[in-house]
From TrEMBL:
This is Phosphate acyltransferase. The lineage of its organism: Bacteria, Candidatus Fischeribacteriota. Keywords: Acyltransferase, Cytoplasm, Lipid biosynthesis, Lipid metabolism, Phospholipid biosynthesis, Phospholipid metabolism, Transferase. It comes from the Bacteria. The keyword Hydrolase does not apply. The keyword Cytoplasm applies. InterPro entries: FA_synthesis, Phospholipid_synth_PlsX-like. Pathway: Lipid metabolism; phospholipid metabolism. Its EC number is 2.3.1.274. Homodimer. Probably interacts with PlsY.
């Protein structure tokens, strides 16, 4: 049962290509639409100047000053070690100190992953946290995990990714017995590299609804609800998908403006095209939750508009309200105990 309680979300207001404008506006929108209490972390004068543009409730948005900002192009580990007073680090400390339930940032992804691991830590039993994104298909959404937090993985890591992704699908997407597929180069168990072959065996031993390997052609087909892979492969899938959407939009725009008839056809089909674009728009889904850390962390695209920040805050609230981290820890510990008994 979901516990009804007040949720407070910290926002790294200096993170992203359009900070602090977009993070502040996104926070204002989330506060007004969802009634969420928010802590903006960043350079105080800059944040106050942005907030003055809006007539939001002052008691719903708090500002905590941060002297430093981790730039998008900075080396993540170097920035984490050197910038002790960065907005990202201070926001993570709010999670650790239980002053905030979740953290949203459109800043340096590598820095956020490192800071969450070091400052907040992983859940008991979790070997490595993972980033998950929603992949739209004809019938709804699939979860792709991991999309960049872990480049080099062991079978145990992917086994845990599958468990965490299944819980995400069950609790947030409300999918009963989500189907789990392992991304490989063929459907047969013998296909793939040594890692995927080992992961295949590991996933068969879990309580997940594992249906076997899936191929690249199945990613957008909706044949599974959770797609499991290492962060190297997952990040390639993510970046190819983003560029493909941009290319399709540009090609459609060019073709539809060639003649009077195509322009007329576009005018008649405008609503359909708007709906299509909305389904593929990452800002509708907010960002990628970092599953497996001892708190809620949502990583947004660096170019995120205010709407994406708003929706990421909503997702963070949903995760906190459903106590998703507690469920993940429980299931991971159960899986480890089952594996120990079967040895």
């Amino acid at each position: 049962m979901v516990e009804s309680r007040e949720v407070k979300i910290a926002v790294d207001a200096m993170g992203g290509d359009f900070a602090p404008e977009n993070p502040v506006l996104g926070a204002v929108m989330a506060s007004e639409e969802y009634g969420i209490k928010i802590i903006l972390v960043g350079e105080q004068k800059a944040l106050e100047a942005e907030l003055c543009k809006y007539s939001s409730r002052k008691d719903a948005i708090e500002i905590i000053h941060a002297e430093e900002t981790i730039r998008m192009d900075e080396d993540a580990l170097h920035a984490v070690r050197k910038k002790k007073k960065s907005s990202l680090k201070i926001a993570a400390e709010l999670i650790k100190d239980k002053r905030a339930d979740g953290l949203v940032s459109a800043g340096n992804t590598g820095a956020m992953v490192a800071i969450m691991k070091v400052i907040v830590g992983t859940l008991k039993g979790v070997e490595r946290p993972a980033l998950a994104i929603l992949i739209p298909h004809l019938k709804g959404f699939s979860i792709l995990i991991d999309v960049g937090a872990n480049v080099d993985c062991k079978a145990l890591h992917l086994q845990q990714f599958a468990i965490m992704g299944s819980i995400y699908a069950e609790e947030i997407l409300k999918i009963e017995k989500p189907r789990v597929g392992l991304l490989s180069i063929g459907e047969e168990e013998i296909k793939g590299n040594e890692l995927t072959k080992e992961v295949f065996k590991a996933l068969k031993s879990t309580d997940c609804n594992f249906i076997g390997n899936i191929e690249g052609k199945d990613v957008y087909a909706g044949v599974v609800d959770v797609i499991v892979c290492d962060g190297f492969i997952g990040n390639i899938v993510l970046k190819v998908s983003e560029s493909m959407v941009e290319a399709i939009e540009k090609m459609l725009r060019e073709e539809l403006s060639r003649t009077v008839w195509t322009k007329l056809g576009y005018a008649l089909s405008r609503n359909a095209f708007k709906t299509f674009k909305k389904r593929l728009d990452y800002s509708e889904y907010g960002g990628a939750p970092m599953l497996g850390v001892d708190g809620i962390a949502i990583i947004c695209h660096g170019r995120s508009p205010a709407k994406a920040i708003k929706n990421a805050i909503r997702v963070a609230k949903d995760f906190a309200s459903h106590r998703l981290s507690d469920t993940i820890q429980q299931k991971i510990l159960q899986s480890r105990e089952k594996a120990r008994i079967n040895i």
